[in-house]
Amino acid sequence: MGDMISTDVGEIWVERQGEGPDVLLVAGLTDPAEAWQAQLDGLSDRYRLTAYDNRGTGRTPLPEGPLSVPGMAEDAAAVLRTLEMPTAHVMGFSGGSLISQELALTHPGLVRSLVLMSAWARPDAYFRSMTGFWHWMAERAPSERAMLEAFLLWIYTPRAHADGTVERIIEETLAFPYPQSVEAFQRQLAPFRTHDTLDRLSGIGVPTLVLAGELDIAAPQRLGREVAEGIPGARFEVLPGEAHQPFQEVPDTFNARVDAFWREVQAQD
């Protein structure tokens, strides 16, 4: 069960599970805290995990005015402060990787390490065209189901489409009692498709693991490699046969990899 917490930047919905070193999970476009359920369940015997709904997702309200990645990084910092976590391993995927990069740059004392999944730092021409299509697809799709069926072509592997995983995710999304509006989708997408951290990545000074799916067409591995090359000492790894969200498709494999990284970081502290 989660809770709505009152922070100095507004109300934010959080889910917490487990005991141990703190981990903050930062989701991307459209995904509420429940997107991390396999991590909340699978890693809670070793870590205290905190996931939350970004602005305009799930139960966290959509404020007036445009959203920004720095603003969402301030939300992440507010969650850490309000829950009295002086420092945490931060893991962000997709748009959440941008938020996590910004958090590490603007609040370095709060970040113990970074895992960046399906990451980018500077949108290229392909990425801008793809996300521009997503923007108008959200309002012109004939139904929410049709929108999901199209959008998830970029997100999951052909395997997940063939074995029923995607259909299950669609049904769960349609049944979710806090759906994201078209306006919230578009306003959240806007900063993710334009924000640029590339020239500032050298300012990140914490241990960083950048992961990319071999088959990811939403955030191709060339973009993740660019992130890793910009962060001093960062590691870059490609997950064979995986796409944009391997933490959902192959959670045991994914959880084992990030657990090994966090254990290594803690051994060096």
UniProtKB/TrEMBL annotation:
<dbReference type="InterPro" id="IPR000073">
    <property type="entry name" value="AB_hydrolase_1"/>
</dbReference>
<dbReference type="InterPro" id="IPR029058">
    <property type="entry name" value="AB_hydrolase_fold"/>
</dbReference>
<feature type="domain" description="AB hydrolase-1">
    <location>
        <begin position="23"/>
        <end position="246"/>
    </location>
</feature>
<protein>
    <submittedName>
        <fullName>Alpha/beta fold hydrolase</fullName>
    </submittedName>
</protein>
<keyword id="KW-0378">Hydrolase</keyword>
<dbReference type="GO" id="GO:0016787">
    <property type="term" value="F:hydrolase activity"/>
</dbReference>
<dbReference type="Pfam" id="PF00561">
    <property type="entry name" value="Abhydrolase_1"/>
</dbReference>
<dbReference type="InterPro" id="IPR050471">
    <property type="entry name" value="AB_hydrolase"/>
</dbReference>
